[in-house]
Amino acid sequence: MKTRIEKSIDAAMDAAQKSPDRSAPPQLKSALTYAVKPGGARIRPTILLSVAMACGDDAPAMADAAAASLELIHCASLVHDDMPCFDDADFRRGKPTVHKAFSEELALLTGDSLIVLAFQTLTRAAAVDAVRAIKLLEILTRATGSPDGICAGQAWEGEPMIDIDAYHRAKTGALFIAATCMGAAAAGHEPEDWVEMGARIGQAFQIADDLADVLQTEETLGKPVGQDEVHGRPNAVTERGVEGAIKHLEDALESAITSIPSCPGEGALCELVRYTAEKLTPVTPTARVAIRA
Amino acid sequence: MKTRIEKSIDAAMDAAQKSPDRSAPPQLKSALTYAVKPGGARIRPTILLSVAMACGDDAPAMADAAAASLELIHCASLVHDDMPCFDDADFRRGKPTVHKAFSEELALLTGDSLIVLAFQTLTRAAAVDAVRAIKLLEILTRATGSPDGICAGQAWEGEPMIDIDAYHRAKTGALFIAATCMGAAAAGHEPEDWVEMGARIGQAFQIADDLADVLQTEETLGKPVGQDEVHGRPNAVTERGVEGAIKHLEDALESAITSIPSCPGEGALCELVRYTAEKLTPVTPTARVAIRA
């Protein structure tokens, strides 16, 4: 799975680095690679490919393009969100953020280029199946832009009156909903049936992220902690306490499992959710035991 | 033509402001409108629709979506290019830039959202004709991203060794090439035949922009002047002098006219190029006379 994801990302990245006519500006080329490789847990494309496989994965090139495009959007959002006008973060995935390693100019352009590259990757995949490519573009543009996507989610943070439901759904949920729906669509299944599963995984991820922000150290997390408090953002731990947040996380994962539509690979998908749960929640089981002790 | 363009932009914008599920964050919604309306000369969509009409315009909804998407990308690029890490411009089109009127956060997100909206607009148009929509997406993603698009063009400015040809072609040429090629593709014609015309108009536009930067005042231009010198950017006037730059501009427009492929609306297109020339070059004819006097 890991190899498949990295291969599809590399193939997509090639298109941004050089064309038949010319090469990218050298620094932009480096910054693009820096922003995307080696990458983090690749949770979103892993979910996407798992759903595609559970749905039969009858057009693997389509699923690969979908997985790469989704991860490129995620990477773009990290680059822009880390910039001084937002989180002003110095570190990400244990190394300096793009604007620190290169410059603000290059961070802005790297994010922009990655957004474009994601949609270009899906456009290219139309050679395999135009109808599915269009469906994937529909899902991913919606999950990225406004009013339902991560751009809107980020914008909610600056509003004097936050619509908490819209905020969480757009900020974190959108790309997880895209992950399950794109996995299904890439394999020719009806994406609508997979919205609920993506939404519940997204919710779990958000709570896990809130827990990590409160409970972990910058060293173990590879990025600054305590950011929700600094930026006055809603955090599940503040709202429910650690125990309450963990219970809420477990409920979300349970709902994710029960919402899996009937399909050949249903069992394998349940396993994936449990595996994701472990990945998502570095506070469990060790820290959880410590907290409960 | 003007009405048609504004209507198609408004239709596209609606999708970013509200969905069946929810409305956009109010400030983002305002910033999106602020960045796009009332707009400037709408030169790129005007060229696009003119080419589409010269090619028969047999699917007007397709051409409308193409025109709107191209202008949205142009607006996005203006919002991001005006930001403090690039031009740090306070005014654009005679009013405060988006980051000045709202905030840097909102300027960044507005640009991102407009990029996504452009591709979403073309994706929606697949309902009219999927093959043409995919072709339009191919052209516009290439013209926007890296290495051939405006992201790369902007990135060349920060390189210690600038590839001048790649820089101009990507920075200004890309969206003009997209204008002519998308116009043809929207009407079911072969876009490749229209690359040269777009490239020459783009070149003329670049020289006109260089002339304006040197010869005009902030008041008449609606944005700061003398920016090329401030940012150490190449400028045709520095390279060739005012007379030489004007001669070069006239040659580029002449080449644009001779490169028009044989099509029913060839004559009308020649008129458009001459009209564009007037729009493009506010230094002509009055200033030109003054300069020559």
The description of the largest β-sheet of chain A is: 2 strands, antiparallel
CATH superfamily placement of chain A = Farnesyl Diphosphate Synthase
Shape of chain A: globular
The greatest interface here is: A-B, 58 and 58 residues
Count of DSSP-assigned helices of chain A: 15
Query: How many E strands of chain A?
Result: 2
Question: What is the SS-derived class of chain A?
Answer: mainly alpha
Low-confidence spans of chain A? 284-293
CATH class of chain A: Mainly Alpha
Rounded to an integer, what's the Rg of chain A over CA atoms? 18 Å
The percent range for helix content of chain A is: 55-70%
End-to-end Cα distance of chain A, whole Å, is 37 Å
Give the helices and strands of chain A as they follow along the chain: HHHHEEHHHHHHHHHHH
Domains counted in the coordinates of chain A: how many?
1
Oligomer: homodimer
Structure explained in plain terms:
2 copies of one chain form a homodimer. The first copy, chain A, is mainly α and 293 residues long. Chain A has one domain: Farnesyl Diphosphate Synthase, CATH 1.10.600.10. Helix content of chain A is 70%, strand content 1%. The first copy, chain A, has a two-stranded antiparallel ribbon with strand order 1-2. In chain A, helix 1 crosses helix 6 and helix 6 packs antiparallel against helix 7. Chain A is globular. The C terminus of chain A is likely disordered. At the A-B interface, helix 2, helix 6, helix 7 and helix 8 of A face helix 2, helix 6, helix 7 and helix 8 of B.
